[in-house]
């Protein structure tokens, strides 16, 4: 499941390029109840260089 979530997160952020979103906003948008799962996958995406962490707890696609 988590890798599917990671893809959904990346797709969602890519569709909203330029927008800075919180993990909570992303989780709600892609239909994931546990924000902790989204946060863990966001961390992986940041490490992979696909997503960047911006202001306090916000993320956007690179």
TrEMBL record:
InterPro entries with a match to the protein in the record: WH-like_DNA-bd_sf, WH_DNA-bd_sf
Protein name: HTH domain-containing protein
Organism, as annotated: Pyrobaculum aerophilum
